[in-house]
Design brief:
This protein is an alpha+beta fold and 203 residues long. The chain has 7 helices and 7 strands; from the N terminus they run H-H-E-E-E-E-E-E-E-H-H-H-H-H. 49% of the residues lie in helices and 20% in strands. The strands form 2 sheets. The protein has a 4-stranded antiparallel sheet with strand order 2-6-4-5. The protein has a 3-stranded antiparallel sheet with strand order 1-7-3. The longest helix is centred in the middle third of the chain and has 27 residues.
């Protein structure tokens, strides 16, 4: 996807002046699997948007455990390490697969926020969407059983199930990798049983 189309879709705008200014202050970065885009605690010098690949936000808890906070896999998704532009990164961002990211310097973002209402509207929309996603996972964690959480993940992140390691999915759902492996094995067993029954009916 070319940058003109990318920004036109991201902002839902036909403002050619804005699109061209965004293009001039944009850099496209390529990342390998496992690369860290930013570490928690670092100053945030740019705003990143996903072009290709899969990424996760994570933090290390007080017990030294790696906790996956969020996933990003849709083109145009922001890779935000914090909800405010003027504070250090709250979480780290890591590439789960190879991919590319559209980066805009923080100085350019602040300038664009002052010049174009569309940029401010985008920022508010992204914050709202981020809050909704975090509410959904918190709701799942506190109200669902481990099995229900994984089924919720399958329903909401079906494209990630076979592409993201069990360890990351387990920490995101607040269950252990062992529990997740057992759940997946149990679900596979149920699917095999259903297929066997359907096969028997064919005869």
């Amino acid at each position: 996807m070319d940058l003109h189309t990318f920004f036109a879709r991201l902002l839902s705008t036909e403002n050619e002046a804005l699109i061209q200014e965004l293009i001039t202050c944009t850099t496209v970065h390529e990342y390998k699997k496992g690369d860290i885009l930013i570490q928690a605690g670092e100053a945030v010098s740019k705003v990143d948007f996903l072009l290709t690949g899969i990424y996760r936000g994570y933090f290390i808890d007080s017990n030294g455990r790696d906790i996956t906070d969020c996933f990003a896999y849709k083109t145009g998704s922001p890779l935000l390490p914090s909800t405010e532009l003027n504070i250090p990164a709250i979480i780290s961002i890591q590439a789960i697969t190879a991919g590319s990211v559209v980066s805009i310097s923080m100085d350019a973002v602040r300038n664009l926020l002052q010049k174009y209402p569309e940029v401010g509207q985008l920022y508010i929309r992204l914050l709202s969407e981020s809050a909704q996603e975090h509410w959904k996972i918190k709701n799942a964690i506190y109200q669902y059983t481990a099995l229900q959480r994984y089924q919720w993940f399958q329903s909401n992140y079906s494209s990630l199930v076979q592409k993201v390691s069990n360890r990351y999915i387990a920490s995101y759902l607040n269950i252990t990798p062992v529990t997740l492996s057992r759940i997946r094995a149990s679900l596979r067993g149920r699917e095999d049983e259903i297929e066997t029954r359907e096969g028997d009916r064919d005869y």
